[in-house]
Amino acid sequence: MSGEITRDEVAHVASLARLRLDDNELDTFTEQLCVVLETAAELNSLDLSDVPPMAQPYPLSNVMRPDVIVLSLDRDEVLAQAPDTEDGRFRVPPALGEAP
Amino acid sequence: MSSAYELAASIRSGDQSALAVVDASFDAIKERDDEIHAFLHLTKQRAQAQAKAVDETVANGGDPGPLAGVPVAIKDNMCTRGEPTTCSSKILDGWRPPYDATVIGRLEAAGAVIVGKTNLDEFAMGSSTENSAFGPTRNPHDTTRVPGGSSGGSAAAVAADFVPLSLGSDTGGSIRQPAALCGVVGVKPSYGAVSRYGLIAFASSLDQIGPFAQNVTDAALCFDVISGHDPMDATSIPTALTPTLPTLNEGVAGMRIGLIDELMGEGIDDDVIARTNQAAEALTAAGATVERVSIPATIYGLAAYYLIAPAEASSNLARFDGVRYGQRVEGQNVAAMNVATRSAGFGDEVKRRIMLGTYALSSGYYDAYYGKAQRVRTLIANEFATAYQSFDLLLSPTSPSTAFEIGAKSDPMALYMCDVCTIPSNLAGHPAMSVPFGVGDDGLPVGVQILAPMLEEARMFKAAKALEEAAKGMS
Amino acid sequence: MSEVSESKTAESVIPDGWEMVIGLEVHVELGTATKLFCGCANNFGDEPNTNICPTCLGLPGSLPVPNAQAIDFAMTLGRALNCTVLPSIFARKNYFYPDMPKDFQTTQYEEPTNGEGFIQLPDGRSIGIERAHIEEDTGKSTHLGGGGRIHDATATLVDYNRAGVPLVEVVSHPVMHDAETARAYVAELRDILLATGVSDARMEEGSMRVDANVSVRPVGSDELRTRCEVKNINSLRSLGRAINYEARRHVDLWTNGEEPRQQTRHWDEDGGRSTPGRSKEDADDYRYFACPDLPPLTPTAEDIAAIDAALPSLPAARRSALAVAAGVEIIDTTLTVERGLDLLVIAGIAAGADATAAMKHADQNLSDGQGQLTPASFAALLVMEADGSLSSTQVKTVLAELVANGGEPGDVAASMGFEAMDTSELESLLDRIIGDSPDEWARFVEGDRKVQGHFVGQIMKATQGKADGKVVNQLMTQRALEG
Lengths: 100, 475, 483
Hints:
By secondary structure, chain A is mainly alpha-helical. Chain A has helices at residues 7-16, 23-40, 75-79; strands spanning 85-86, 89-92. Chain B has helices spanning 4-12, 18-36, 44-59, 102-109, 152-159, 176-182, 216-226, 270-285, 301-316, 334-345, 348-361, 367-390, 412-416, 423-428, 457-472, and strands spanning 39-42, 71-75, 113-118, 165-170, 185-188, 208-213, 256-260, 289-293, 393-397, 432-439, 445-451.
């Protein structure tokens, strides 16, 4: 990888992340991201084929809990923090299309 | 204000009332926090209720705990039930969580009194607390300068003597670097030693909560209270941890300490290097052997960190979508609402890291970026493991420089360089702490960093105590 | 797994020369007490947002901890599907949707709990399974306005009770070629789920959800052409209709020189058609990565052996066992196994009953199940039928009584006044009637079967219906041969 990211790629990535950038921001961010990715490109010189990715800093496995009911949150306390609710549900503008 | 250890003792014995102590804390805050801006929100009612409860327990002959009546400040990225928790972001402005972080429960069970929530770089992303949506925090030693970040508010609150203890979080150095810049003790525990339940996640495989204190004893006391297994955190270490307080004064005689070569040269200010060399000499005088050690992979730490942390953050911050809590900017449909909300609610640094992280994980780029960075992590951890075969502890500067002026570093990359000494231990998961050791040429605090193998906090604290003793003798 | 050969259907759904290619993704809600990553109740139908906590609501600072029972159920299902149980890692699938509390779904990607397996259909064919992995369910969205249709909605309401419920997604290989096979696959999967107790598998309640991936190709080709995923299938009947509709739609497009667009489609049962949803070409890049909050699962050989030991008898094994015991084809065992009568029949055969007779009775006379009937009584009764002690009609009556109230067939027969009719008695009776009707007998001996009824009728009259018609016929035939 060259460490470069194009303006179009930044725009695409922004939309994946549900962010809207105006033209100025697009330019600025592209420049800044390029600089960071250039630093990342330093890693290209390393031969890591024999090095496995680090899964966890402190290796654990099979961490589980028993299938026992624990008291839930009070709905009113939660809904009181919501921007908009109706009939005990969270209300949002229409979701177009089905979920993936 | 007295040390936490002394305060708790005097409150437990009835010599002081917790209520009086917490009121004194609020007075100190009132007097100077307009200038410092360490706090975003004070939790007066909760604090006074807790203080009263502590005093009552004492009056009834009970023991309120090892932190009885000690005022503590909490970085505003940890959930405190019913109290504002903003992560210094507009997107969470006004949010009051319906639950407490595990560490809050442990502090209060030990008798501590939570006085307020402190300022941070937005979502813990930064090294100066200038990225806060609610204005920067100022370094109590020189208010034209930054306190460091991202836990700048918590560091400043202790440095300004508002509270003897505070909690911060450390993902790439966010406790240790501000501790160094503010001249206080700051500890990043072993990954998994302190529960992350209730810590608003930045980078899940790197984040740890840890204490700020004015002295090593207080830091050890606090660490022993907040650490330990939590069933609510699946990454929490299940085995019992060795307490750090009991062995604190055992000294460093016979310890082999490695001074990390790669962090003692280019990129580090001369005065910082000088102080670190002096720290090495102090440890030698105290009975340890100090030698140079090379850990080459540390130079790749920055690159790996700035791929891994943003990648995890991009996923962790997706939930801020205006649907269930926080601020919302309306839109014609929910996707438009998400975009409008996030674009208005997040600051530039957060957006930058979200985009960087999204890119590093995206189809076609995963192996080259995120995947590769995770391998570099293993490389770094392996080299540390090798070093720890020959050494009991490692030593380095904490921050490349002393506190810089507010506004001085506007280039993101320049700010990222602040973390070059601290990042490797987050990547490897090992504990590390910063201990104040003298001042720089500008008279501002310098911190040196002690690094230890996984779960060796007790050993790390012993060396920190020895350094603290030695530092007292410095002019 | 090898491809299943095309089954022969009575009429062609798609034109000759074309073949459907069907793969099914079935999401199964596990019947645990709590959700996958938190202690909230796993209940259907509770008041909205009353089973929520920081974790399943995805509140900032919350963390997941896996439910041991869910993991156990997932491995149990995997073994019941003949899958290899593997070490696994939870991964994050990142995308935005309001029913997703964290805007990522915790699922399994490259390392699922269960790898390759298969389902054996009642007709004996095997359908290959690619994987069966664990993931968390989403909340439920209701769209207001626009008659409930997504496209015209004015707002969306979200209930997170279902968010975090444990699911296993069973992914078949694309090796089915008609709707009937697909239906049989789902029906068999459902039977397995019920037998193992892992899920109540109710399509109408959403605890089993079937998505069909459909494409077509020319017969004889092994290519995989553009496929569409059809969702919102709420019954087996809809599954068949949706598959056939989609296959026809694809064939029409290809025949007109067009290509189906790769997309998700929504099945409209009332309209009898599928409508386009999101285009898969614009699909999100899910940016999968291992979830840093969840350590891996590493089941040991002992763990898996324990799972295997605890598995109940599954339908396929029961069919095989019955086929062997009764000496019949697997397809002929389905009804008996479905009714849960296989153990009875096998035990009956072991106790001496005739296999064919046992199967026949199970299929024809035990439609309400075994009731109080024991294998020993069943076997004894069939012996009485075979040696002519009871007539077929009598056997049926006694059987019904044994099912209803239990007991021994001999005792029941006696209490009903059904006596064991001696064959020699019958022979004497026949001789007497032959003596009374010599002309008719002569005609019978010469081969006139029409007069048979005369003799049978006379004997029945004389024995008040107790004679076994089969035995009478045998005696007559034998006597006729003797001359």
